Amino acid sequence: MTVISYSDSAFSLLPPVVAILLAILTRRVLLSLGVGIVLGSLLLSQFNISDTALYLGDRVTKLFWDDGALNNWNVYILGFLFLLGMITALVTVSGAARAFAEWARQRIRCRRDAKLLTIFLGCVVFIDDYFNSLVVGSVCRPLTDRYYISRAKLAYLLDSTAAPVCVISPVSSWGAYIIALIGSILATYGMSETGHLSVFVEMIPMNFYAIFALLLLICVSLFGLDVGPMRTHERNAQKGELWDPAKIPPGADADLPESNAGKVMGLFLPIGTLVVATVYFMVSSGANALAADGKAFDLIKAFENTNVSFSLFYGALIGLGVTLVMVLVQGEDKKLILRGLTVGAKSMLPAIWILLFAWTIAGVIGQLETGKFMASLASDNIPLEMLPAVMFVLAGLTAFATGTSWGTFGIMLPIAADMAMGSHTGMMLPMLASVLAGAVFGDHCSPISDTTILSSTGASCPHIDHVVTQLPYAIIVALISLVGYTVLGFTGSVVAGLATCSGLFVLSIIYLKIKAASR
């Protein structure tokens, strides 16, 4: 069948917009994504029903088998989710999760400290956003549950550390990918001698959204600043209702019995093994790729060439092996262990179904070339001073519509660089940084974002509840960042942009504290 391109048409926006609006209005994620997938497929096949059916079949097949070979990325990620579900269930069965909650309760004496510990772990586990959300969620969920912190608040804590930390960390899957993109952009303009890592580091203070999203997260945890729907979820949590009982949260394993013989080490050792093994495989797979190209080992370049999904899967496999050994040594009943493995794997099915639908609509949106249409809105008629702010908005809209930060980076960074080179080279880094910031903002707001989906999974929170409760916080930071990029564009000063954002941030916190005190 012939597939039509919509890169120059607003029709390319219809499937993601319809899916997102339906998801928010109906709170039925799979139905909403399914409608978006079918609508996009109809557009691509010119509303020919038989061609649409063929296209949908081909798109579903490509989730697992693409270009005559196994789709390793998807298969490994799905395997990682199943394995992590099993590890979490076994940790519950062994009583280690309960033991950790009791251990932490003696040291973490209030809800505020439990939230701050979650943020701290989210900042420490900066290797990959998927890894961050799922592992930190598994570790902290018993603790936040014990202090009656809503699953929606936990999901916000996970999501708003994962991407913001990864996007400003050079030693992460995100940082490596961005550095590789920057390298190709610099080479295109004959600037290959410029240090790619130094350029990335220079852009960190220009990533206003990532910086102030983290700062807002800390202030929300310190001062109890519950905004919008989050206030309702937190109030319900104080009554013992950690999530909406009418919904089944992903990753739920509440039906499993917990042993009284559990030890804290039963949680720390499996998770620690998982972290160490994953980092090892990330570095080694990157090193092998470098060696295959005849290049010397370099840590940053190893991360640029790492196989993230492979590393997550095999790291989780080793983590599961260690968990099994510990549970068997503890003397738990083999039938109960088998039940834990089964329940753990099944607990991930809601997240996996959403992820499969999200990947499918992402493929449809990619063929509709929605991202290219969004990029085409960047006109040469835009005043030079407004370019950082405009690129922030466009990157945000693109990530929101497509559900992918990485895809937005790939589309928008070269365009931002080209616009800067065509007008004023001194504006290149602020424009590149504004694209990174906008992409993370759009990703935070999008219900079809895989990072957002997996943050819901890590927190075991109904997905749309997470999206709706995180949205006000993301918008607050985005508005602050937008003003900061406008000031940066007009003054050419990063310090002025940061100072403006800092002033607005302080005023926002004061306002939110006054509102909270008046309730």
Overall spatial form: globular
* Largest sheet: number of strands, sense, barrel closure: 2 strands, antiparallel
Roughly how much helix do the residues carry, as a percent range? Answer: over 70%
Total strand segments:
2
Name the average pLDDT.
85
Terminal CA distance reads 60 Å
Summarize the structure in words:
By secondary structure, the chain is mainly alpha-helical. 75% of the residues lie in helices and 1% in strands. The chain has helices spanning 14-26, 29-44, 49-61, 72-93, 96-107, 111-124, 129-146, 151-167, 173-188, 196-203, 208-223, 229-238, 265-292, 299-304, 308-330, 334-347, 349-368, 370-376, 387-402, 405-423, 428-445, 450-459, 463-491, 494-518, and strands spanning 65-66, 69-70. A two-stranded antiparallel ribbon has the order 1-2. A hairpin with a 2-residue loop joins strand 1 (65-66) and strand 2 (69-70). Helix 6 packs antiparallel against helix 7. The longest helix is centred in the C-terminal third of the chain and has 29 residues, at 463-491. The radius of gyration is 23 Å and the shape is globular. 53% of the residues are buried. The model has no long low-confidence stretch (mean pLDDT 85).
